[in-house]
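Repro case for the chain-ordering regression, as requested:
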Amino acid sequence: METILKSKNSLFRSDATQKLMAFAGLIALFVVFSIASPNFFQFSNIIGILLATAVNGILALGATFVIITAGIDLSVGTVMTLSAVMTGVFITVMGLPVYVGVLGGLTTGALAGFINGSIISRMKIPPFVATLGMLYIAKGLSLVISGLKPVYFNDTPSFKEIAMGSILGKIIPGFEVPNAVLILFGAAFIAHLILNKTVLGRYTYAIGSNEEATRLSGVNVTFWKTAIYALAGSFAGLGGVMIAARLNSAQPALGAGYELDAIAAVVIGGTSLSGGEGTILGTIIGAFIISVLTNGLRILSVPQEWQIVVTGTIVILAVYADILRRRQ
Amino acid sequence: MDNEILVSMVEIDKRFPGVHALDNCQFELRPGEIHALVGENGAGKSTLMKVLAGIYSKDKGRVIFKGQEVTVSTPKAALDLGISIIHQELNLMSHLTLAHNIYIGREPGKAKRLILDEKQINKQTEDLFARMHLKLDPSAKVSSLTIAKRQMVEIAKALSHNAEVLIMDEPTAALTDAEIEDLFSIIRDLRDRGVGIVYISHRLEELQQISDRVTVMRDGRYINTVNTNETNIDEIISMMVGRTIYEAAPEIPEHASQEIVFEAKSLNRGRWLKDVSFKLKKGEILGFAGLMGAGRTEVARVIFGADALDSGELYVKGERVDIKSPRDAVKHGLGYLSEDRKDLGLALGMDVKTNMVLASFEKFRSWLGWVDERATEKSAAHYAEALDIKTPSLEQKVINLSGGNQQKVVIGKWLTADTDILIFDEPTRGIDVGAKSEIYKLLNDLTHQGKSIIMISSELPEILRMSHRVVVMCEGRITGELPISEATQEAIMRLATQRGTIINGSESVSNSVKLGSA
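-- result from build under test --
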């Protein structure tokens, strides 16, 4: 008994360390960049960082669910683009109200995710392959539907406000935090609740921890996996709406590479690719680490090419730190 | 004197965080001896041997090999000395050939070993097999072998390292009796050639057959070493548990009523199941006996919907049911406790609470799929107490519990789901002696409460002690059904080895055996 108790405590401690480590890393980056450049710790720059995190952060939220099930979703980037294009089609081509267009964008993402989930759980195709297929399908469809041209939202100025307006700025004058940032935190909060408080969240962990045992417990794993991928797709859809609102246009050629940024954020945040563990808070911290790094290096006039190299190094170091922690 | 002793371990101490795994332990091995090492789970047997094999480093103590003190800091160092260990989970690469597995890392090659010499490696392996009188094809893939054959390959691998000390951790856990005999003759052959063999086992009845001496450990401490022919199983058990346990005669309270709660009719599945029919009464423990591979687990899996049936009918409480998935089975009140708890029964990385409600979240979900945390906790706490699960908290990850407590968590899961028909597949595998009798008591209590149990077990004493009726299988068929009064080890073994075509009626076996309950 006593020994079990002790091991539990140390386990608990190491879980806490892990979160602390990522958070401490983020703070350290803040401190270093603040010292290195007076331009870093400015209200406008911090807002810039938050804004830059919004889209990747939202995609990473969905990816967190999938990765906890020991799956992977490579299609989030291009599904995001497809959702943006569909939103554009609904609003500008079909002339539907903005909120219907937004719902249409979310639904597009959810549908793509649903298809991913069905292919994976019913046809038993590995997630990597299924979502790789969807990556191409969504990319192709975006180009087909848009006719290779960007869709602009010039006739509906209210659409842009979704991301770039500031409700907070209206309430507290001067505190112009763009809505995109609020939406990111709102989405993160909802994702956290789903993951920790609902049956779907419990099954997400259970499937990642031991899929066969979960199935043999009478859980309809096929259904729940499909639901989890559909949820990830919905977040990609939300990402699509956000990026369209931010750019005031749906860019059909955009989107490739976003899935990797999302996965990087999840991994830096301490979620294991082998499934069973991970947190939303970790993912959000991971997403911020990437954008703080990019932003800070840019302020220090490090060329963009090198920023990418640094991001890659950070991914490897973050996972290595996690492995070292586990070894203890 | 020193030439008499191959290995001697003295005052070995080893601590893991929070656990004193080895407390001043000793062990001694002579050349040409089979030395059994026994003890309950967690007694420190495997840890001690892992120290000898260089997998763990000791904190204190000395290892003396052939009269010289040695430092065995890595598995490679142990191999170089001639100390080989064969783990319980075999460590072979199933996609490679036998020859490649045996000589991995030491492949003979041409052109400065850049090009693999296939011919040579197969030749070497063939010679090795010939020395062991093994008839195996060096170029076959490991995946094509049975567990028993893989074990032989592991032994061959150890010999290819010129092992003088061979440590075997539960080598017979997954073998049939015939395979065990083959294994034993190879082990004896090695002994006669002067190899010192350490034999870790839970199957005490084997010790008499195979070992020369027995060392008993308990709670990380050395207890005693005795000559096998001067002791008996009861004495060893009492050294293991530190008390004399009363191995009671079959204890079979008669709760079984005549009500049939479950019936299987003519189940067929490929080459695994042929025309399997049986009935289960309310409050009954129906034992399923047979050798490994007889199809008992397959029966459990098809009635639970984990595998598909080719044909056959299932009835729950007299009503025909269609079970296509475990989900359907749970709905009809069936629960399955797999023989493989870790892979099929538990989400090891998750906590006790979640595992306990994993089969019945439907009951604990409220609006929008919200988990009713309080109800979950209450239910988990209730069953944890009822089953006497020893865990510091309900938030403990089940990976940190002992085998017996893990098994109780699985039982708790099915009680939470309110299942009436429980299928236990090897309920006490990997569970130590003390926890075993607790599980037995639990099974009896469950039948008291009107639950019906199908118990698959490879341990005949367990079958005889627990069952009200015994169904015996062989090669996918039910070869007989015995009321407990007529069930003896001999009768069961006779049915369990009854190969070929068995048909109801005229070709029947002895009179004491009724065939096919349906």
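Ordering looks correct now. Residues 444 and 489 of chain B are 22 Å apart (CA to CA).
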